[in-house]
């Protein structure tokens, strides 16, 4: 774990901090500014603890059992029972970065003082996260309404010292053992606290924030891949001119076109076919319209980022303790705002990948690749070149189209029809993560193929930026053109270079005067 910490409770959590905590092991602490507000709202809850009037989740059951009165002496047990019964997930373990993001966002809501938890409970939650203890959470169980109930319940169960966690080294351990080894005493939940620990959109929001970070990198990488393809396919950069793009003033389109101009600047390949001798009037859509498609995806990311920002500033629980001391039921736990943009992003991901695969395919067809060998093979017929790499990309794109089917249009009523409309936002987030992995792989195959094609254009020299990316591909251990080799490891090497940002870094370093956005 990192020795660095962020303070939670000084204001809304920053999206960059979510990624740092989730993926880079940055620790957390509860800000002292939050303690006073947490304590104040706890006083309100404790004043209701022995109240005979109905207060949802304090003196009543949950969901369809909200009309069931719970006597005062059973109200602490009510919270423990809630966590145990709701920790009902099934399936594979959810990834560590998702759980850490979920925990940070739940802690952020606790720190607002709107949930009624005790200070010691919030501090214990922060300590568990800071120690790098990651509760085992299963993939299935959230309907994205009343919060991500099952995933959050598995985390709360670990806070109680039950269930299992993975420690900072990834070892699976009983929660009580791991907590005490890190100086955290298991929490005996009091009134309202179990409900406060499970009633949020933190899982789907955490996955949205992480996805946005990935997509910003991948969409710029898509511009890099497109530039390599336009260049190696002897296309034109004239269509990316700023004045032509300004005729349709979408901001994402302008940014993508500016990237393409910068990436292709100084290309000897492009210069070789400029002038009156060139008979090509215009390129295929997958080359010519890259800024329009990539730009639309960028604008979709911008919209999703605005939604995420509002959600990061939210305090989601039911009931909530208001600033003036009321305890009120509400519907802010419904995941529709997050679910919609998660689905919207999956559509954009599928389309960007689809266009990338079409550019890859053009390289392999002698009728369309402008003088390159069939399938970029060394000895066509004996060698198959990148023929099956395109099959792999096509198979992924086909799956991405299925993953683009919205989850948020579905709803299965639950809790005896009390929860009769749910968001399925968690499912939307899970499929977006898979889609982003697919886009990474499709772009990597395009970069791998375009790098080979640029080598085959020798002695023509590519642009400084695209040459740098080709060299970065070679630096992964992927050799240049030659007889057929085991291709899967080469694809995997470039996938990792795309995923880590090495491909994008190579392009940026080659053209420091042009900030690729």
From TrEMBL:
Keyword entries, A-Z: Histidine metabolism, Lyase
InterPro entries according to UniProt: Aromatic_Lyase (IPR001106), Fumarase/histidase_N (IPR024083), HutH (IPR005921), L-Aspartase-like (IPR008948), Phe/His_NH3-lyase_AS (IPR022313)
Localization per Swiss-Prot or TrEMBL: Cytoplasm
Pathway: Amino-acid degradation; L-histidine degradation into L-glutamate; N-formimidoyl-L-glutamate from L-histidine: step 1/3
Chief localisation class: cytoplasm
Source species, domain of life: Bacteria
Entry's Gene Ontology molecular function annotations: histidine ammonia-lyase activity
Reactions listed under catalytic activity: L-histidine = trans-urocanate + NH4(+)
Pfam family, one: Lyase_aromatic
EC numbers for this chain: 4.3.1.3
Family: Belongs to the PAL/histidase family.
Designated name of the protein: Histidine ammonia-lyase
Source species of the chain: Geodermatophilus maliterrae
